Amino acid sequence: MEQITGKVQIREIVVTAKQQGQQSGIECLILSLQECLLKKKVRFPLLEFAAREIMLFVPEAQQLHLTDRLIATTEMGSYVLTGIILQQRLPEHFEESIHKACTYITIGNQWYVCDIIGERVLGHALLTSPKKAIPLLEELAHHPDKWVVRTIGVGTHYAVKKGLKGLPATYVDILLKLLISLSNTTDFHVKKGIGWGAKTIAKFHPKLVACYSKEIESPETKQWFRTKITIGLNRHKLKPSSDPQ
Predict the structure, then answer these.
(1) Rounded to the nearest 10 degrees, how much is the dihedral formed by the CA atoms of 49, 149, 174, 186?
(2) How many CA atoms lie within 13 A of 53 on its CB side?
(3) H helix intervals, 1-40
(4) Are 134 and 174 a contacting pair, CB within 8 Å?
(5) Would you tell me the crossing angle of helices 111-118 and 76-89 to the nearest 10 degrees?
(6) How far is CA 99 from CA 12, 93, 123, 146, in A?
(7) Closest by alpha carbon to 86, among 67, 113, 59?
(8) Quick one: what percent of the chain has pLDDT higher than 70?
(9) From 102, 139, 218, 221, which residue has the greatest number of CB atoms within 10 Å?
């Protein structure tokens, strides 16, 4: 498989796709991206760069049609492009972008689709607009699709892992309570996502976790969740003392 290794190549591919789109319509733009970008071996950061370059010229009215068609290709890179395009739409279309991300996650029906889109959309939304994002995540906790519930933990991990630059403790507190409420799940994939978020919170906010020791040690909280918390606390001990408590 051909590998693309630099931004110069990415720009050339995007420019060619843009020209195809201008000459023959958005379907030709999508076909060009699929053949010249998505079927190549490309690192995720370069795909993210490509998505931002694409957003410079695709009209707002056509952006969701573009993501619909990208998702339909089922190419791995399409999930990265889609995640960044929706991320770029968050300032003007916050709820729509999150709900669209959940739709794509449900359609994808795989853990990697959930995690790729979940980090880039829900995680970014949490990190940059927690007041708006957290109520939506609390709603998604009751979603019937397991992948959407899993993405709550994925988004939490993304927003908290930034350490000092991550989510303020006030919001982490709310998320920890939400994750604890989901600790009785029995689905393997949901447990992985929720546990991921819980582990990251424990790693960066051990004092906050201590405040919920009664709830965490409750018989209603499953052992798998307590294990993830313990792993996170142990990892905190290995980190520099400058990390938030």
Answers:
(1) -130
(2) 19
(3) 7-24, 26-33
(4) yes
(5) 30
(6) 32, 10, 13, 15
(7) 67
(8) 96
(9) 102
